[in-house]
Design a protein that fits this description.
mainly alpha; two-stranded antiparallel ribbon; about 45% helix
């Protein structure tokens, strides 16, 4: 251990890092980095590393192997692209640790990042429009205007990110009969930043039917509560504003086929399947995240030939990002849609 270093434990170091970056990263990004670095802290605890000063390049290689193989409480084996993202976050943390003299200078360069091909850098999962229709039909019949219903309905109808949905207050809604809509606002000073900050602010039109369901939710199941800043959130729990993790967990739960009595397409025994428990819903191969809902929405728009610029503005994402990360149409689908615009085909 170098005499120039200041002793610092892994958990405290991660806490300091997240606190230092809280004013520059969105809440969603901070949550993602916190989750990734929790695995690193688990590894440190398992291998008895109590002081970051003692961390070496050999340790970092061992951590890479440990994480790749799915070690860590509540974690599974991960794909190369996921491992690369987790190690990139660890590099960013170690850069911070170097700056505060907790690890040797240049240690971050010893974090081995696996290389991935272009196609590997994109998730292939999505929530198919047909499945969304089935789930919303179930919710409309059995859990009408519930928080579950409103969460999936708004994510699907607007294509919004979970952080954007979480940011909505009652005052952001115009549920008038003629032209209902909702406004996404960047309010970092009171805990609800948007991913693209001020550039993410926008009005989204909603249908009269969606507006009616929102009204029924507000007048009925919604918990009438304020958040810690005295604001009136649209989506609430008994503790106040719903967190991003609450919204994400909602999607994991309702996208499991067994949850709505549709059986198990994975030949699992529903009586003993771990994924039937709400806390383990994400372990169901059919469960889907907010990102998957967003990609399904983009795919549906593009199948319906909604102009790319319109989709880009509504979802607050560049056309390039939409094409690379969200459009799940097959190459054949795209070719057949182009056929209609080309003569003599």
């Amino acid at each position: 251990m170098s005499s120039d270093l200041e002793p610092l434990g892994p958990v405290e170091g991660v806490r300091m890092y997240l606190d230092a970056r809280s004013d520059e990263l969105s809440e969603h990004t901070l949550d993602a980095q916190r989750y990734r670095l929790e695995a690193f802290c688990q590894w440190c605890d398992e291998f008895g590393l109590e002081n970051l000063n003692d961390l070496s390049g050999r340790d970092l290689y061992q951590y890479r192997v440990w994480r790749r193989e799915g070690n860590g409480e509540g974690r599974d084996e991960i794909a190369t692209v996921t491992l690369r993202g987790q190690l990139a976050t660890l590099r960013a943390f170690l850069r911070f640790a170097e700056e505060i003299e907790a690890v040797p200078e240049g240690l971050r360069n010893d974090v081995p990042l696996p290389s991935v091909s272009g196609g590997e850098n994109v998730s292939n999962t999505t929530l198919e429009p047909e499945r969304v229709g089935e789930i919303l039909t179930f919710l409309n019949r059995y859990q009408y205007a519930s928080r579950n219903h409103v969460t999936l309905l708004l994510m699907w109808h607007t294509g919004a990110r979970a952080g954007g949905l979480r940011s909505l207050d009652l005052v952001d809604l115009d549920l008038s009969a003629d032209h209902p809509g909702i406004k996404f606002r960047h309010r970092p000073e009171t805990g609800t930043p948007l991913k693209n900050k001020e550039r993410g602010e926008r009005w989204n039109a909603i249908s009269p039917r969606v507006a009616r369901i929102l009204e029924d939710y507000i007048d009925g199941p919604r918990e009438d509560t304020t958040d810690e800043h005295g604001r009136n959130p649209l989506i609430t729990t008994s503790y106040g504003r719903a967190s991003v993790s609450t919204l994400r967990d909602t999607l994991y739960r309702v996208t499991r086929p067994c949850w709505r009595g549709a059986g198990c397409p994975h030949d699992r025994d529903i009586e003993t399947c771990e994924a039937t428990q709400a806390v383990h819903a994400s372990k169901c191969p059919s469960s889907r995240s907010p990102h998957d809902v967003r990609s399904g929405r983009v795919t549906a728009y593009r199948r319906e030939e909604v102009p790319r610029r319109v989709v880009s503005d509504r979802l607050n994402a560049s056309e390039g990002i939409l094409d690379e990360h969200y459009d799940r149409r097959s190459a054949r689908e795209k070719a057949e849609q182009r056929r209609d615009y080309l003569p003599d085909l």
